[in-house]
Write a structure and sequence with these properties.
By secondary structure, the chain is an alpha/beta fold. It has one domain: Class I glutamine amidotransferase (GATase) domain (Rossmann fold). It has helices at about 25-35, 50-60, 90-105, 115-125, 150, 170, 230-250; strands spanning about 5-10, 15, 20-25, 40-45, 60-65, 110-115, 130, 155-160, 175-180, 185, 195-200, 205-210, 215-220. The strands form 3 sheets. The chain has a 9-stranded mixed β-sheet with strand order 4-1-5-6-13-12-11-8-9, sandwiched between helices. Strands 2-3 form a two-stranded antiparallel ribbon. The longest helix has 20 residues, at about 230-250. The radius of gyration is 17 Å and the shape is globular. The two termini are about 20 Å apart.
């Protein structure tokens, strides 16, 4: 009898549409979980309290924190909010902080992408910088203006992977090409994180949770978009899927 598929929790964003508040997640992440990680995505609504989130985590084998059009509210890392920090999704902020903290406490495999990468840093005590393209010596990491999604998510620049690190064990040492669709980035690195990759301008592009027993990575780029065709992107999701199966089997 084949093994049951792994269940992977995905936080919902909140959106207003036709006088309803919707709790939803982008399909690219859900498809990558299904096709490359071999799991079943479970969207977690952003209205649960911590006890209910704990109940969800009792039943899943992994957590994937997605990117989003919204940003972490700067009040969560001690910065006064401005228009440059917007838009916000406070309900998602509360949900992801609990998911990250509880997943790490339980050693549940965790993959955090783009906003999720930033949320991981904030949840562990780090801070973010906004409009980094305006900083001296920084590249423009924002998405190119183009009507086609493939062009917006095209692989655009290399990141240098730290030799011997957790990411290098998945994609190899050296450099990999990544896409870039962000205007915020890690400013003060949280004490509990280790840098796994940087962009040519020094921007932290990947982190791991120091001392984590299992899979716990944050990536500033979007491997989910090319998980079916780009070898490095697929390798990341396959490694995450393997970790989720190992966690399920150990349970």
């Amino acid at each position: 009898m084949p093994d049951a598929p792994t269940l992977i929790a995905v936080p919902a964003d909140t959106r207003r549409f036709e006088n309803y508040e919707w709790h939803a997640a982008p399909s690219t992440y859900l498809a990558a979980i299904s096709s490359a990680a071999g799991g079943v995505p479970i969207i977690v609504p952003a209205l649960l309290d911590e006890a209910a989130i704990g109940t969800v985590l009792d039943r899943v084998d992994g957590v994937l924190i997605t990117g989003s059009a919204s940003n972490v509210h700067p009040g969560r890392y001690g910065v006064e909010p401005t228009a440059a920090h917007e838009p916000f999704d406070p309900a998602r902020d509360r949900l992801t902080e609990a998911l990250i903290r509880l997943a790490l406490q339980r050693d549940i495999p965790l993959l955090a992408i783009c906003r999720g990468h930033q949320e991981l840093n904030v949840a562990l005590g780090g801070s973010l910088a906004t409009e980094i393209q305006e900083f001296d010596g920084r590249m423009d990491h924002r998405a190119p203006t183009h009507p086609e999604q493939d062009a917006r998510f095209a692989l655009r620049h290399p990141v240098s992977v730290e030799p011997g690190g957790r990411l290098a064990a998945i994609v190899g040492d050296g450099a990999v090409e990544v896409n870039s669709l962000h205007r915020q980035a890690i400013d003060r690195l949280a004490n509990g994180l280790s840098v796994e990759a940087r962009a040519p301008d020094g921007t932290v592009e990947a982190v791991s949770v120091s001392g984590a027993k299992g899979f716990a990575l944050g990536l500033q780029w979007h491997p989910e978009y090319w998980a079916s065709s780009d070898p490095a992107s697929r390798a990341i999701f396959e490694a995450f899927g393997d970790a989720c199966r190992q966690y399920r089997d150990a349970r």
